[in-house]
Amino acid sequence: MGRPRTPIGTFGELEFTTLENGKVQARTRYRDWDGKLRRVQATARTQRSAEFALKAKLAERSLVQPTFTELTPDSRFVDLVEYWLHDLDLEGHLASSTRNTYERNMRTLVLPAFEELTLREIGVARCDSFIKHLAKQSYNRARQARVVLRLAFSLAVRHEILPRNPMDHVSRLRRPPSTPTALTSVEVNAVRAAIRYWERGQSASGPKPDGQLGLLVEVMLGTSARIGETLAIRRRDVDVTSSPPTIRLAGTVVGGRNSPFVRQDHPKTNRSVRTVALPSFCAAAVRRRLVALEDRSLDSLLFCNRDGGPLSPHNVRRQLRSAMDLAGIEGVTPHMIRRTVATAVNEQATVDLAAELLGHTDPRITIRHYIKRNEMVNPATADLLDNVFGPRDSDD
Questions:
Q1: Can you give the CATH number for the domain in which 99 is found?
Q2: Ranges for the Tyr recombinase domain (predicted)?
Q3: Alpha-carbon distance 96 to 103, whole Å?
Q4: Is 193 found in the same domain as 165?
Q5: SS3 call for 276
Q6: Is residue 175 helix, strand or coil?
């Protein structure tokens, strides 16, 4: 067996030499990050000062990292951000929309508070205070800031720029109580009427409607699809000749922030790939849209712009807001429509079926975020209480 090696970062015995000028030189052997032993030395007026100077030199030397980054704990936080974004691009496993969202959240939520600080100055207390103050403004903004801060500092730890992640000990965020909201059947019909009114050109401003918004909403109501999934439906994904007619949801539209919107060939999660049987109102809307399509190729999009490319989800949301504002209806969004579908399926069947339709891996997500709570207690309780407490006929 060979002699056990000194651990990396360990130095040997200190040696002292008095030089001709009267100063003292302290030296030792130090095992560097590459595993090689090197002689390190420092000179001062006294032995104690020389020893102190040598140990300070070794402490600084321990910050030299075995990676290709030049970042150190004294680097600015903004430099870590650029390094982190570059690393995300190198990994390449994130959807472009997710990557852009991370960058947006980092630049708009976090950098204004941290860009002038060094990494060494950003500890648990500072991060904890920042997240708590942000949470007072918005829980979602605090949650998004927490995610990107943790990811950036995790990279710094993995690449041995920092010894620990300050976000590991930040207080847990408490989600404020909220109840999912959903539209009733009466409200759904009011939304339909508002869109028809808007599509007849009754709006005072903006481009003339092309008739796609109403059909798009019918497809979302009939499939529970996310807005990006709906805009990614191709002719090949539709089968209106089968019984029942079906749509395969197998992609989404991504882009924005200085990049064009494109169809991505996979949706949000693997479970989100699904084939949905269409109710008659949805099938009728799909048939109308297929007739209107000029491009007869299988890969043509069901909903598209003038050039046949994907519609912008932002523009669709804006058009829906315009139609709803014209009718004085508030709070209607594509996500609200998705919650409406989930609530209806849960009330008529089961939460498991609602989760399957929405493409969720866990029904708890469906319950927490998508299903409107039914406040009506089972009417059977009235009969039960009548049987127990109802007055009885007596001879008295």
A1: 1.10.150.130
A2: 178-383
A3: 11
A4: no
A5: strand
A6: coil
Write out pLDDT tens, residues 339-371.
Answer: 999 999 998 988 889 888 988 888 888 877 788
pLDDT digit string (tens) for 101-117?
999 999 999 999 999 99
Cα separations in angstroms, 165 against 103, 153, 156? 19, 6, 8
Phi, psi of 239 (to 5 degrees): -130, 100
One domain for residues 300 and 212:
yes
C-alpha to C-alpha distance for 107 and 143, rounded to whole angstroms: 15
Q: What is the pTM of this model?
A: 0.66
Nearest C-alpha neighbor of 51 from the set 15, 77, 76: 15
Task: Cis check for the bond before 4: say yes or no (omega within 30 of 0).
Answer: no
Other CB atoms within 10 Å distance of the CB of residue 325: 14
SS3 247: strand
**Cβ atoms of residues 127 and 135 within 8 Å:** no
Can you state the percent helix, strand and coil of the chain, rounding each to 5? 50, 10, 40
Domain assignment present for 155 = yes
How many percent of the chain have pLDDT more than 90? 59
Residue with tokens 């790939």: 273
Both tokens assigned to 59:
């402490």
> Euclidean distance between the first and final Cα of the chain, in Å?
104
Question: Domain check: are 236 and 284 in the same one?
Answer: yes
Q: Considering its fold, how many domains does the chain have in total?
A: 3
